[in-house]
Amino acid sequence: MVFVKAFLVGGAICALVQIVIDKTKVTPGRIMVCLVCLGVLLGAVGIYEPFAEWAGCGATVPLLGFGNNLWKGMRDAINESGVLGLFKGGFTAGAVGISGALIFGYLASLIFKSKMQ
Fold first, then answer.
1. Distance from C-alpha of 69 to C-alpha of 90, rounded to nearest angstrom
2. How distant, in Å, are the alpha carbons of 7, 43, 107, 115 from that of 38?
3. Three-class SS of residue 106?
4. Phi/psi at 30 (nearest 5 deg)?
5. Residue range 81-108, pLDDT digits in tens
6. Are 51 and 67 in contact (CB under 8 A)?
7. What angle do CA 59, 87, 56 make, to 5 degrees?
C-alpha cells in the first residue's frame, strides 16, 4: 500500500505541473524553479515534513522534495554555524543528488548518441 500511495501522490504532483505547463505560457524552467522554491517555503513553515512522512517517496522525489531537502540542510547548518549556514547548508544537503545527476548524465552522454537536429 505504501507504493500505491507514493505513486498516486507523485503522479498527482506531476499531473498538476503538466496541467500548468499545458494551460499557461510559463516556461518549464520557471515552473521547476517555482517548485523548488515552493518546497523550501512549505518546509520552512512546517507543512512539507508531515506531508512527506505521510506520502513517502511520492512527495520526496519530485522537485518539491528537493526544495524541502535544501531547506532542511540550511536549517541544520544555520543551527550549527549561524548565518554562514545560509550559504553552505543547501550545498551540503543537495550535493549527493546533484553529483549523481551530473555523473549519470555524463555517462549517458558517453553511451548514447545525441539526436539533435
1. 8
2. 21, 8, 31, 34
3. helix
4. -70, -35
5. 888 888 888 888 888 888 988 999 999 9
6. no
7. 10
